[in-house]
Design a protein that fits this description.
single chain; 620 residues; alpha/beta; Rossmann fold; 3 domains; five-stranded parallel sheet
Length: 620
C-alpha cells in the first residue's frame, strides 16, 4: 500500500509527519507522469508545484482556508490530495475530472479558472467577503511568474496593497511561461533571486533575528528595522513592498521543510503577503525538465523516452506560421505579435527569421492588441496571432483601439471552434459573435490550405481589422473549398443539388461534404456552399440559394447566438427573403471538456450530425 492510498482528503495529509511529505511528493509525481502519459495534459507545471501543493494543504486548513489557483492548469496535485485521487485517471476525459479547478467538482476548488491572471483579484474578493462576514480564514492565491505579469494581476496587486486585507499571494517562479518568461518583471524576479547584495542582507537578517532572541528585543521591531535596512541597500528590490505587500523569499519550492516552516510563519500576518517560491518546471521527470515547453501541455507520451505521439499531421497552425514567414519576406512592414504563445500559434519560425519584427508581449492580450494598433498607426502591418478564447480578453481593444480608427491589423485567430480536452474556458466558440458586430472588421474562415494561404495574402492587402478564424488540428491540404479565387465577401459554390443546401463556414466544409455524400446515398440531393466570409458575407449567393432550395442548413463551429447563421437570418428578415433555414452550431451553454471529435458528434457538427440536420430541415 502506498502513502497516497491513505490520503483521502487533506485532513489525512495533516496527520502525516513532516518527514513523510518527501516520500508522498515522490509518489504524487510518479502518479502524475503515469496518468498524464496516457491522457495528455499540463505535466511540467504540475511537476513543478508538487511540494508546494503538499505544503499548502499541510499547513493551511483547507477547505475552510481557500487556495485560488491562477490559470488552474497546475491543480492536478491539488486534485489528487482533495478527495479525487481515485478519479485522477479520468482527467480531461469526457465525463471525467476537468483539467482545471471547478467549483462544481469539489469544495476545495474555490474558483473556476483557465485564463491567466485572475487569482489575485478573485482571492482579494474572497478576503473582502470574509471580512464583511467577520470570519477568520486565510485566502491564498497561487500564481506563476508569467501570470503575475498579466495586467489583471497588476491591477489586483494595486488594489490589494491599498485595501491591506489579510491575503497571501504565492509567486511560483520557475522563470517559464509556456516558453521562457519574458519582460521587465521577469528580469526583476531573476535579479532578486541572484542579487548577491540581497542574499547577503538576508543572511545578516537571519543573524540579527537569532541575536535579538537572546537580547529579548520584540521581533516586530527588529523586523521593521531590518526591512528598512534592506530598502536602503537595494532601492530597486522592493517593488512588492512599495506596493503594500510584505515580501518574503525567494525560497526553494522543492524543499518541503523550508516550505512548511515559511508558510507557518507567514500565516500569522494579517496583511497582504507575497511569498516568492522558486521552482523548476518539470521537476523530477527528466524529459519534462529538459523540455518544459513541450511538456507544458503534452499529448500522450511514452514514459521511458518522453516521446509524444503528435501524429505529425499538417495543421492550420503550421500553415499559418509558414505562410506568415513567406509573406514577411516581401512585405517588410509585417510584424508578428504573440501574448506568450509563440509555439502554440506557430510563430517560432517567424521569431527565428525576423527577430526584430517579432514581439512576445507576455500574457497580456489587451496590451497586445493596442500595441498592434500603435504599430499600425505608424505604418506597420501587425499580425496578432492569438487563440480565440484568449482574444476574448481584448474585445474592447479590438473595438476601441483598432476598429474605431479603422487601423489595418490582422487577427490570426487560432483554436477557433471546439478545442476539446481543456473544456469550457478554452473553447473558441464565441469569436464570430464578438467580432461580427464590430464596424470596420472583415471576418473570414478558410476551408483548406490553399484557401487559407490566399486569405492571409488577401488580409495583407485590405484595410481595417481583418480576422481569420481557424480551428485546432489538421488542415485539409487539397483544394476542396471551390475553384474561384478568394475575394472579399464572396462565397464559393462547391456542389450543387436540388433538395437542400448546406452553407458551411470554414473548416466545417469537410464535414458538410461528408454529409452531402451520406444524403446522396439516401437519394437526397444536397448543394454545398463554402461561405468563406462572415463579414461581409455573400448576400447575393445566399439569396439565390434561398430561392433555389427547399431548405438551407447553415453550419458553423461557433455559438448559435450571434453567429454566422444569425447574421444570415438578420439579412433575410430585413430583406423579406423567404427561406426554410436551419442553423447548426453550439447551444446556449458552456461546452464541457472531452475529445474534440466526441464533442463534435455530441453537438451534431460532424458529417452524420449535419446530415441529420438537413433531413430534419426537409421534414424527413
Ligand atoms: C489569458 C490567457 N492567455 C494565455 C493563456 C495560455 N497559458 C496557459 S498557462 C500559460 C503560462 C503560465 O505561466 P506561469 O503563470 O508562469 O505558470 P507555469 O505554467 O510556469 O507554472 C499560458 C500562457 C492563458 N491560460 N490565459
Amino acid at each position: 500500500m502506498t502513502m497516497m492510498d491513505h490520503i483521502k482528503s487533506p485532513s489525512d495529509l495533516r496527520k502525516l509527519k513532516q518527514e513523510e511529505l518527501v516520500g508522498l511528493s515522490a509518489e504524487l509525481r510518479e502518479r502524475l507522469v503515469e496518468v498524464v502519459s496516457k491522457t495528455g495534459g499540463h505535466l511540467a507545471s504540475n511537476l513543478g508545484v508538487t511540494e508546494l501543493t503538499v505544503a499548502l494543504h499541510y499547513v493551511f486548513n483547507t477547505p475552510e482556508d481557500k487556495i485560488v489557483w491562477d490559470v488552474g492548469h497546475q491543480a492536478y496535485v491539488h486534485k489528487m490530495l482533495t478527495c479525487r485521487a481515485d478519479k485522477f485517471h479520468t482527467i480531461r476525459q469526457y465525463g471525467g475530472l476537468s483539467g482545471f479547478p471547478k467549483r462544481c467538482e469539489s469544495e476545495y476548488d474555490t474558483f473556476d479558472t483557465g485564463h491567466s491572471g485572475t487569482s489575485i483579484s478573485a482571492a482579494l474578493g474572497m478576503a473582502c467577503a470574509r471580512d464583511l462576514d467577520r470570519k477568520n480564514y486565510k485566502v491564498i492565491a497561487v500564481t506563476g511568474d508569467a501570470s503575475l505579469s498579466n495586467g489583471m494581476s497588476f491591477e489586483a496587486i494595486n488594489n490589494a496593497g491599498h485595501l491591506q486585507k489579510d491575503l497571501i499571494v504565492i509567486l511560483n517562479d520557475n522563470e517559464m511561461s509556456i516558453s521562457a518568461n519574458v519582460g521587465a518583471l521577469a528580469n526583476y524576479l531573476d535579479k532578486i533571486g541572484t542579487d548577491d547584495r540581497y542574499l547577503k542582507v538576508k543572511e545578516n537578517i537571519k543573524r540579527i533575528i537569532k541575536k535579538s532572541k537572546f537580547l529579548g528585543v520584540p521581533l516586530v521591531r527588529v523586523g521593521r528595522v531590518i526591512e528598512e535596512s534592506i530598502k536602503g541597500v537595494i532601492s530597486s528590490g522592493m517593488l512588492f513592498e512599495e506596493l503594500g505587500f510584505r515580501y518574503f523569499g525567494p525560497i526553494d519550492g522543492h524543499n518541503i521543510k523550508i516550505l512548511v516552516d515559511t508558510l507557518r510563519s507567514i500565516k500569522r500576518f494579517k496583511e497582504p503577503v507575497l511569498l516568492h517560491v522558486v521552482t523548476t518546471k518539470g521537476k523530477g521527470y527528466r524529459p519534462a525538465e529538459n523540455d518544459p515547453t513541450s511538456f507544458h501541455g503534452t499529448p500522450a507520451f511514452e514514459i521511458e523516452s518522453g516521446e509524444a505521439n503528435t501524429g505529425a499531421k499538417r495543421t492550420y497552425t503550421g500553415v499559418f506560421g509558414e505562410c506568415l514567414v513567406e509573406l514577411a519576406k516581401t512585405n517588410k512592414k509585417i510584424v508578428a505579435i504573440t501574448a506568450a504563445m509563440s509555439s502554440g500559434t506557430g510563430l517560432e519560425a517567424f521569431k527565428d527569421k525576423y527577430p526584430e519584427r517579432f514581439f512576445d508581449v507576455g500574457i497580456a492580450e489587451e496590451h497586445a492588441v493596442t500595441f498592434a494598433a500603435g504599430l499600425a498607426v505608424d505604418g506597420y502591418l501587425p499580425v496578432v496571432a492569438m487563440y480565440s478564447s484568449f482574444l476574448q480578453r481584448a474585445y474592447d481593444q479590438v473595438l476601441h483601439d483598432v476598429a474605431t480608427q479603422n487601423l489595418h491589423v490582422i487577427f490570426a485567430i487560432d483554436r477557433a471552434g471546439i478545442v476539446g480536452d481543456d473544456g469550457e474556458t478554452h473553447q473558441g466558440v464565441f469569436d464570430v459573435s464578438y467580432l461580427r458586430h464590430i464596424p470596420n472588421m472583415t471576418l473570414m474562415a478558410p476551408a483548406d490550405e490553399p484557401e487559407f494561404r490566399e486569405m492571409l495574402a488577401l488580409a495583407a492587402e485590405l484595410e481595417g481589422g481583418v480576422a481569420i478564424r481557424y480551428p485546432r488540428g489538421e488542415i485539409v491540404t487539397d483544394k476542396i473549398g471551390g475553384k474561384a479565387k478568394v475575394a472579399v465577401g464572396k462565397a464559393a459554390t462547391v456542389r450543387t443539388g436540388s433538395d437542400a443546401c448546406i452553407i458551411s463556414l470554414g473548416s466545417k466544409l469537410r464535414e458538410a461534404l461528408k454529409a452531402a455524400e451520406i444524403l446522396k446515398a439516401k437519394g437526397i440531393k444536397v448543394g454545398v456552399i463554402n461561405a468563406r466570409f462572415v463579414k461581409p458575407f455573400d448576400k447575393a449567393t445566399l439569396k439565390s440559394a434561398a430561392k433555389r432550395y427547399k431548405a438551407l442548413v447553415i453550419v458553423e463551429e461557433n455559438m448559435l447566438a450571434g453567429g454566422f447563421g444569425s447574421a444570415v437570418l438578420e439579412y433575410f428578415n430585413e430583406n423579406a427573403v423567404q427561406a426554410n433555414v436551419k442553423l447548426l452550431g453550439l447551444p446556449d451553454k458552456f461546452i464541457e471538456h472531452g475529445h474534440r471529435s466526441l464533442l463534435l458528434k455530441k453537438y451534431g457538427l460532424n458529417g452524420e450530425g449535419i446530415a441529420a440536420g438537413v433531413e430534419e430541415a426537409l421534414g424527413r
